[in-house]
Amino acid sequence: MAPNTSPDKSRNAALFERARKLIPGGVNSPVRAFKAVGGTPRFVQRAQGAYFWDADGQRYIDYIGSWGPMILGHGHPAVVEAVQKAVLEGFSYGAPTEREVELAEEIVKLVPSIEMLRLVSSGTEAGMSAIRLARGATGRSKIIKFEGCYHGHADALLVKAGSGLATFGNPTSAGVPPEVVQHTLVLEYNHIAQLEEAFAIHGSSTACLIIEPIAGNMNFVRASVPFMKRCRELCTQHGALLVFDEVMTGFRVALGGAQSVYAKSIPGFQPDMTVMGKVIGGGMPLAAFGGTRAVMEQLAPQGPVYQAGTLSGNPVATACGLATLKEIGKPGFYEDLGHKTQRLISGLQAEADKAGVDFCGDSEGGMFGFFLLKELPQNYAKVMTTDNARFNTLFHGLLDRGIYIAPALYEAGFMSAAHTDADIAETVAAAGDVFKLLSK
């Protein structure tokens, strides 16, 4: 694919100029604005398979896939057919449907830790509701989260670390009063001693610990097995709920989610609650939170914890999600997807090594990440040592060569079943060219 040599003299630039007059920053979600990497955002005109085309007709190999949901690629025939049929039946009813029950049954079948669940419309809504339910079920107020993990933009979760383990967080967004986050404790990811000290001080008043088991919002950072094991042990010991945020990893890294990956190393491992989104909606606005029957029965109308949503369980979104889950449940799907992702990362590593550029990468299933560092980081502070300028050079070098990765070094990437060996080879070759520039 020939480079787009004049991206700023384009319809993309004209659209961005129009958008900024009406939409804050010109976008409806901040990372889309290219603020971290500079340049002009690409306005997508259409997408199919592993590709999308921008407003100038330029084709890109897409490695964000709507930030994870498009695990089958764009426009999969079975999913399109299911959505078209659902649309003809009706957009929204504000009443229950059989398809909601079918989707719940499918998720419960595939994720053993979930006995009951509630469908909602976004990952933020699911995370916010899970926190409320954890507090209601335990009668406690405090929550533990980890620096670098993102659980949506609910006020209580937009928080950075306080000055010590006896103090709580400070808001990271204007508009969030300090008293809203006074019960949120932020710890360092993969730091067992700090985790143990936090529970020693606050364990009896902690409602839940919420964690991305594979963090996708500081690029791609795994919770170590010993760390995750200790999270489970301490939550059990102190009566707090372990909440897995699998909005990104759910059905993306494995059919049973990241929790099934940890269960291979930690016998009997299960979280108490799980937050899900993205893949379960197949690209439509749909998410869920679920857990043990005892906890979930605390939700209204059965219990005292209130949660509601006009579009929850939307009939078009559930049709899309069900069709997606049916396809990814076919034998060999994840083996093939995982091998593709591994080939991409190993190919990029080989080209970086050849050019003498510091590089490391990791993947699980169809989710991956890489850093311009000598070794994989284990926490947010280490991720922050990445050279932004060098990443920006890599990003724009790939973009100019028709490869679209996340426009920020803190975001994970996503492989789809639609990506071919030729797509991977094209990506690796393009990266090789850019690594040569970085090595000078």
Question: What do these coordinates show?
Answer:
The protein is α/β, with parallel strands linked by helices and 440 residues long. It contains 13 helices and 18 strands. It has helices spanning 11-22, 77-89, 98-110, 123-138, 192-202, 225-238, 258-263, 293-296, 315-328, 333-355, 380-383, 388-400, 421-438; strands at residues 44-48, 51-54, 59-62, 116-120, 142-146, 159-160, 170-171, 184-187, 206-211, 214-215, 221-222, 241-246, 273-276, 287-291, 360-364, 367-371, 403-404, 413-414. The strands form 5 sheets. Strands 4-14-13-12-9-5-8 form a 7-stranded mixed sheet, with helices on both faces. The chain has a 4-stranded mixed sheet with strand order 1-2-3-17. Mean pLDDT is 94; it is low at 1-5.
Chart the SSEs and their pairings.
Layout: H1 11-22, E1 44-48, E2 51-54, E3 59-62, H2 77-89, H3 98-110, E4 116-120, H4 123-138, E5 142-146, E6 159-160, E7 170-171, E8 184-187, H5 192-202, E9 206-211, E10 214-215, E11 221-222, H6 225-238, E12 241-246, H7 258-263, E13 273-276, E14 287-291, H8 293-296, H9 315-328, H10 333-355, E15 360-364, E16 367-371, H11 380-383, H12 388-400, E17 403-404, E18 413-414, H13 421-438
Parallel strand pairs: 3-17, 5-8, 5-9, 9-12, 12-13
Antiparallel strand pairs: 1-2, 2-3, 4-14, 6-7, 10-11, 13-14, 15-16, 16-18
Helix pairs in contact: 2-9, 3-9, 5-6, 10-13, 12-13
